[in-house]
């Protein structure tokens, strides 16, 4: 199936298992000072405002949302042209979700796992793999980009913790 057919049909291009992909795993781990239910709800409430929290400039469009699945697209205007990607997220509350994405820059498959920790904290674990683009002129993201991914999740954690503290004040 060609990329334009995937875009038109919204077909999934990736296998459902991270272990089926060749190549290295990339891992991000963050300890978050909020309970697991809040963390899951916050992390999977995809929004066009996510780019502000992430410190990136992209446009996000939510295509579908249900209690078990979210489908969204991101679009970035880069010096090399438009970068587009569609993501399909399968939700597994309260402790995880699975994401598959495809676009003109890369394909990605990711598993997110939440583990409750003492004192109302949560361990966030992201394990992902990227494949090169379907298009010949795109390259796999450099190591610096993966470091940006890690920094972005630490920014997300700080924003999440601030929202959690705000929700506690409102509850009182």
Task: Summarize the model shown.
This protein is of the alpha+beta class. It has helices at residues 3-9, 36-43, 50-54, 143-171, and strands spanning 26-32, 59-65, 69-78, 81-92, 96-103, 106-117, 121-132.
**Helicity, as a percent range:** 25-40%
CATH architecture: 2-Layer Sandwich
Per CATH, what is the topology? Alpha-D-Glucose-1,6-Bisphosphate, Chain A, domain 4
CATH class: Alpha Beta
**How many distinct beta strands?**
7
Which stretches are low in confidence, meaning pLDDT under 50 for 5 or more residues running?
1-15
CATH homologous superfamily descriptor: START domain
In whole angstroms, the N-to-C terminal distance is 54 Å
Give the tags.
single chain; 172 residues; alpha+beta; Alpha-D-Glucose-1,6-Bisphosphate, Chain A, domain 4; seven-stranded antiparallel beta sheet; disordered N terminus
Write the layout of secondary structure elements.
Blueprint: H1 3-9, E1 26-32, H2 36-43, H3 50-54, E2 59-65, E3 69-78, E4 81-92, E5 96-103, E6 106-117, E7 121-132, H4 143-171
